Amino acid sequence: MKGPLVDPASVPDWLRPLVEISGKLDSTAFTRFTPPEDELTRAASVLILFGHGERGPDVLLLRRADTLGSHAGQVAFPGGGADPEDADAVATALREAEEETGVDPAGVRPVAILPELFIPVSKFAVTPVLAHWHAPSPVHAVDPGETAAVARVPLADLADPANRFQVRRPGTTYKGPAFTVNGLFVWGFTAGLLTVLLELGGWAREWDRGDVRDLDVALRDHLLATD
Fold first, then answer.
1. Rounded distance between C-alpha atoms, residue 28 and residue 210, angstroms
2. What molecular function terms (GO) are annotated for this protein (predicted)?
């Protein structure tokens, strides 16, 4: 299932374009990867939680603990693998978000489901769940062994050209968008998804796609600047 979960007219004007277009998208809008037919994947969900703070619309992000076995230290949306008790992808996203950030699900309204996306490095088939944070609650890193930091990041900061560039991994074919914002270094799956959502939601601004940096160097420079 993908597309709106609610009447688009019932969500705030700034979020409506994403809800309206959600049913018209397929995975190719976000990624070139598709699950190989002969390879097992694990179902997972992420919660893309949009609120409205003092500086306008924002999104909830977290930084994974440096000690984790996969995607260690990376910035991500709250989320994770499905449990047998989860009723559906929405239930998985809400449960994981509460476990990782302490967000109160009672204040969260799921509004749309995006196409399932495949992450080759972890073999996850991820369902992104868009939600409106109509009654924001305090959030924090619930378990330091899993989550290092939690932040509400204004979309205006993500769209700021000064915070955007591309990263590449020498010796590989990888090149993709990245952000340095609010003390966070965002790249990979999360940065790619945010890039498309900024465009679809009408928040994107022109930025220098010719600014391409080696990933290791950019990450090192970011860590030195934030120490």
1. 23
2. coenzyme A diphosphatase activity; metal ion binding
Q: How far is 194 from 179, CA to CA, in rounded Å?
A: 10
Write phi, then psi, for 106 (nearest 5 degrees).
Answer: -65, -25
- What pLDDT does residue 156 have? 97
Place of tokens 């909830």: 60
Model-level pTM? Answer: 0.94
Task: Kindly state the tokens that stand for 14.
Answer: 């700034």
What SS3 class is residue 60?
Answer: strand
Residues 154 and 53: beta-carbon distance below 8 Å: yes
What φ, ψ does residue 190 adopt, rounded to 5°?
A: -65, -45
50, containing H or E segment:
strand 42-53
Q: What single-letter amino acid sits at 121?
A: V
Q: Where are the alpha helices (DSSP H) in 82-214?
A: 89-101, 155-159, 188-201
Q: Which residue in the block uniquely carries the two structure tokens 């990245």?
A: 178
Chain centroid to Cα 162, Å, comes to 20
User: What's the rounded Cα separation, in Å, for the pair 219 and 167?
Assistant: 10
Q: Which two tokens stand for residue 112?
A: 């749309």
How far apart, in whole angstroms, are the C-alpha atoms of residue 213 and residue 224?
A: 16
Domain boundaries 3-226, CATH class: alpha beta
How far, in whole angstroms, is CA 214 from its chain's centroid?
22
Question: Which segments in the chain show pLDDT lower than 70?
Answer: 34-40, 66-72
76-113 pLDDT, tens digit each? 999 999 999 999 999 999 999 999 999 999 999 999 99
* Distance between first and last Cα of the chain: 43
